[in-house]
Amino acid sequence: MDNRQLLERLAREMQRRGLPASYIQRYVDELGDHIHDSVEERTHAMSKDAHGSTDLTARIGDPIRLAQVAAAEYRKANFWGRHPILTFLLAPIPLVVVVWIAMFAAGMLTMYGRNEGGDGADSWPIPLIWTSIVWFRVASVIPPALVALLLCYLARRGGLSWRWSLAACLLVAVIAGLFRGQLELPRAMSKGQLMLGFGFGLAGWFQQLLQFSLPLATGLGFAWWMAQRHTVSPSAQTTDTVEGFRQAA
Amino acid sequence: MTAARTNPDFVNGVPELLALQLLARRPMYGYELVRAIETSTGQDLEFGEGCIYPVLHRLEQQGALESRRESVNGRSRVVYRATPGGRKKLAVSTAAWRQVVRAVDQVLRGDVLQGDQDGQPAVA
Fold this sequence. Notes:
By secondary structure, chain A is mainly α. Chain A is 73% helix and 5% strand. In chain A, helix 1 runs antiparallel to helix 2. By secondary structure, chain B is of the alpha+beta class. Chain B has a three-stranded antiparallel β-sheet with strand order 1-3-2. Chain B is globular. Chains A and B meet through helix 2 and helix 4 of A and helix 2, helix 3 and strand 3 of B.
């Protein structure tokens, strides 16, 4: 295997493991410099293998092994890379619940502030009533989708397989699909009510379907995108680097 | 005696320790660092030279190292240097390494707890 083949194979193997292009580029660049120095030093030393590259793999390392090391080290650099079970299997559901609570609490506090006079929604302007209703719907749908996006981003940043993010998105989708809520705005004669829980019923099925679909679509979209990335050849930039190195060497 | 080509599994964390130690002495680029490891270990430790870069990148991401592209001997090189955080990490890792070496060495030397000699479990 010559220098160019080694670097190209390394880039392909790293790409197959889902590592980001910028990281692959950096590694290939530095390894190209390294091989260049190694060849130059051996040429100057007039050693037996000065012009050969037969032991290149033995010296630098097998590209598959190097890609494995790179992926392992890349994962070790982040918490979610070191603890994928915790991040992608245990944390998603509590995380969605926390974001839901934050969103609903923000809405409730705003409504409470508007209701200080005690007249309730009867005295609110129409846009405010609609904003409250829309906020309630949005607060049911958006948090699971945001958490799914975050988990996909973390999987990408951690160089982890799309299987982790898909499993996490599926968990989020299930919990989101089961989530039900009911909002009653405060009136002059009655306090407002916000009821949250889990279950399934025909009333509100569309909302629940939407809550289920968005995180799942996010996970599937990310998995498809990752699969596409793995099937393309190394980036033109990487090939340029390899070509540049070959000429220099 | 010829050294084994492949190192045992228990030296997995050694490249990190050596890299931190050598970079704490002076900034170096990757190739220079690999040569320094070879020289300072008397070539007793062997690993694929390319394996050092992922270790350096991780240490940089963890804040133990910082890197900068610099011109060295007319060529552009990524030069790594240890940060104050890296020096602290080195001190912790060195202490842990020494503790492990001492403990394992104690076992390998055959030091036994009282009670083992007559086949009975040791009592603290």
